[in-house]
Structure formats: C-alpha cells, structure tokens
Amino acid sequence: MTNKDKKFLKGLQTDFPLVLRPFAALAAEQGCSEKEMLGYFRKLKADGVLRYIAVMFDLRKLGIVSSLIALRVPKSKIARTVRIINAYPNVSHNYLRDDDYNIWFTVSAVSERKLQAILADISRKSGITDMLNLRTRQVFKSQAVFELK
Hints:
- By secondary structure, this protein is of the alpha+beta class.
- Helices cover 38% and strands 16% of the residues.
- It is built from five helices and four strands.
C-alpha cells in the first residue's frame, strides 16, 4: 500500500462524503473517475484491506434499546447456538470467548419488550437459560481512527 493510499484511507475514517454518490465525490477529490474509484474499493475489499463501509448511528437517540448479552453454552451446543443468534438481524456482534460465559453478543430492538422477546426466543430455540443481560449504565464514546503503517 502506498503512502497516498494510507493517507486516503485514514481520511475516510473521519470524513466519508455523505452525498448521493459518495464514490463520485471521492473520485473528483482524487482526480479519477467514479468507475476507477469503485474499482479501487473493490480491490481493497478483495485484498482484505477493507471489510465494509458502514454508518454508525447513536441508537439511543433513535429510541432503540440495546444490550450486551453473555451466555454460558456447553461446547457441544456452541455451533447451533451461534447459528440461532446470527439469524437475528438485531444482532450486530457475536463473539466466542474462552470463559465460562463463552458466547457474547450485542442485540438491539425498537423497545425493551421486543428486546426481551428476542432474548426469550433465543433461549427457547437454543435451550440455553444461563444468560447475563449486561445493560449499559454509562456510555464512554471514543473515536477509533486506525493508523496505517
């Protein structure tokens, strides 16, 4: 990756254009065509440099509730439980950890009632009842900007 690539990608982390055609705007800034810019992003993705581009919303300001959930799952039920959890579009992260509570995931919903219904459904489908619902008490927000070496 060239120094120009690194500078460009670092800038995207904090200043992605919020316009109808963001890749055309980026292309104009870089002096190339929109088609070339899209090809550049496809190559970054194919090379594993870029996984995806996403917007981050403050769910609380949108009236959405969310929670971090920890499950204690027997090794024999991990794969099945992960498939059940991942089937919910409400789940944004799902991690396997080396701990008694070995599956951790975040889930969000339009209301507390809906969130509880999703958790009850996951428990019913998986047969896992040992669940910690770790609600947010206070938010500490940091801006992650990755230095590219």
